[in-house]
Amino acid sequence: MKIVGNIIAAILIFFGVLFIWGAFSDTGQPSWLIVGVISAGIGLGIVWFVNRKLVDPGEQKVTLDIDLSGDVDLEKFQCSNCGGNLSSEHVHMVAGAPTVDCPYCGVTYQITEKPKW
């Protein structure tokens, strides 16, 4: 819809400029100036309407599902620094990587998967 609107607006602006230019020629008519200004104005209005940014009144909720390749047991999830028991509430995403905030010692670290072999 946005592309079609911009194409139609470009055509209206183009012909509006041609009518305005033609109105000042030797054989031009004063009504061409009015038609050109109206056509260019409608074209500019369409460009504004199609390209405006709409304000989203609601908040968007983004859910990110992580599929880990290994077995993860959240019942035994402990801080690597102090050994405090953690839950899934202490894990959040930072730049696409799962990160842990320990409420006991205050350390923040990225979860890394250890090889199984």
User: What's the main sheet like?
Assistant: 3 strands, antiparallel
Q: What average pLDDT do the residues reach?
A: 84
The count of helical stretches stands at 2
* Unreliably modeled segments: none
SSE arrangement, N to C: HHEEE
Beginning-to-end CA distance, first to last residue: 54 Å
Number of domains: 2
How many β-strand runs? 3
Strand order of the biggest β-sheet: 1-2-3
Which value, in Å, is the CA radius of gyration?
31 Å
Beta-strand content estimate: 5-15%
Helix content: 25-40%
User: Helix/strand/pairing class, anyone?
Assistant: alpha+beta
> Which shape, going by the Cα principal axes?
rod-shaped
Structure report:
- Helix 1 packs antiparallel against helix 2.
- The chain starts with a helix and ends in a 7-residue tail after the last strand.
- The longest helix has 22 residues.
- The protein has 2 helices and 3 strands; from the N terminus they run ααβββ.
- The chain folds into 2 domains: 50 residues; 56 residues.
- The model has no long low-confidence stretch (mean pLDDT 84).
- It has 117 residues and is α+β, with helices and mostly antiparallel strands.
- 38% of the residues lie in helices and 10% in strands.
- It has a 3-stranded antiparallel sheet, with no helix packed on it.
Characteristics of this structure?
117 residues, alpha+beta, 2 domains, 3-stranded antiparallel sheet, 10% strand
Briefly, what is this?
With 117 residues, the protein is an alpha+beta fold.
In terms of topology, how is this protein built?
Layout: H1 2-23, H2 30-51, E1 91-94, E2 97-101, E3 108-110
Antiparallel strand pairs: 1-2, 2-3
